[in-house]
């Protein structure tokens, strides 16, 4: 399958000397939701800005739908819709005029029916004659999404799209994203709400210090790197873990009232049966136990911490 976005050996160093991106190689598949995760300053926005033709690359090549973002700028950019972090728009224009003008910028013929449906999908139709400055922050965010979709792009970038918005808008947005994917639109998003990436994304990319440190299918990533923990709530607290149990690498928590055992759920031998037997032999009784699995957030934090070592 040919990539809808192909990034080859992309690097960018700003005039200050800061290396924002270092040798990025990445292919985005048609029709997928790709979540790009990384801490502040990792290079997420710089990468998106280069793909969208806002920032020039230092070196390397970016193809969008087979079009070079530098040599074939207009053809490449016409395929992209961008919802930036910042709310930027002409505040004295109406919602309808703003979205209509954005469509015209890409040379698209007028299509009032499409724009009407777009505004209805984003709960903006009743606000179509309102000026931008009259809208709430959540409504302004919806207008940015409408502008990005006005020219019917096949690729949509969402750069921290739900930062600071209400729960209702977040829910509406993700319903819209699902609908776009069903129509074949490729979605690339950055987010600080990692639970959204865990719920929505098909693949996860992690960027740290301007380098892509991992790209993986979400389910495969959870399978490979996710760990399970067994927490045993003790009848009596322990001052310390007996030396004879050191091989289990247990963690004593809750002021000695709980033991935590981390294990690989996919392994043929988890070690749980042996642990419970050894605990009984040492007279360590528990009143309750529970298991939990690492979330995508746990995995992300661990990956970033390892990349910084």
From TrEMBL:
Domain spans labelled ABC transporter: 5-234
Superkingdom in the source lineage: Bacteria
Keyword Transport found: yes
InterPro entries: AAA+_ATPase, ABC_transporter-like_ATP-bd, ABC_transporter-like_CS, ABC_transporter_ATP-binding, P-loop_NTPase
Pfam family, one: ABC_tran
Keywords: ATP-binding, Nucleotide-binding, Transport
GO MF annotations, alphabetized: ATP binding; ATP hydrolysis activity
SMART domains linked: AAA (SM00382)
Keyword ATP-binding: yes
PANTHER family reported for this sequence: ABC TRANSPORTER ATP-BINDING PROTEIN
Protein name as it appears in the record: ABC-2 type transport system ATP-binding protein
Organism lineage string: Bacteria, Pseudomonadati, Pseudomonadota, Gammaproteobacteria, Pseudomonadales
């Amino acid at each position: 399958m040919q990539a809808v976005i192909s990034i080859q050996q992309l690097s960018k160093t700003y005039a200050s000397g800061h290396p924002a991106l270092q040798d990025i190689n990445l292919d985005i598949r048609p029709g997928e939701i790709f979540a790009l995760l990384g801490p502040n300053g990792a290079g997420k926005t710089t990468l998106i800005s280069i793909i969208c033709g806002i920032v020039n690359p230092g070196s390397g090549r970016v193809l969008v739908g087979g079009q070079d973002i530098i040599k074939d700028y207009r053809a490449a950019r016409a395929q992209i819709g961008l919802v930036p972090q910042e709310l930027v728009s002409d505040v004295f224009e109406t919602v309808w005029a703003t979205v209509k003008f954005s469509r015209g910028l890409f040379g698209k013929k007028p299509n009032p029916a499409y724009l009407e449906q777009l505004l209805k999908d984003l709960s903006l139709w009743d606000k179509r004659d309102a000026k931008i400055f009259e809208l709430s922050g959540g409504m302004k965010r919806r207008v940015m999404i409408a502008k990005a979709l006005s020219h019917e792009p096949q690729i949509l970038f969402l750069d921290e799209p739900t930062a600071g918005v209400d729960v209702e808008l977040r829910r509406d947005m993700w319903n819209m994203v699902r609908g776009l994917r069903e129509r074949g639109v490729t979605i690339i998003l950055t987010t600080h709400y990692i639970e959204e990436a865990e719920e929505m994304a098909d693949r996860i990319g992690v960027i740290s210090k301007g380098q892509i440190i991992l790209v993986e299918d979400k389910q495969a990533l959870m399978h490979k790197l996710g760990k399970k923990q067994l927490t045993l709530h003790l009848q009596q607290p322990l001052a310390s873990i007996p030396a004879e149990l050191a091989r289990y690498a247990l963690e004593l928590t809750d002021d000695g009232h709980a033991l935590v055992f981390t294990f690989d759920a996919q392994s043929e031998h988890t070690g749980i049966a042996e642990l419970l037997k050894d605990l009984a032999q040492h007279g360590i009784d528990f009143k309750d136990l529970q298991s939990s699995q690492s979330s995508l957030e746990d995995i992300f934090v661990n990956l970033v911490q390892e990349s910084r070592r």
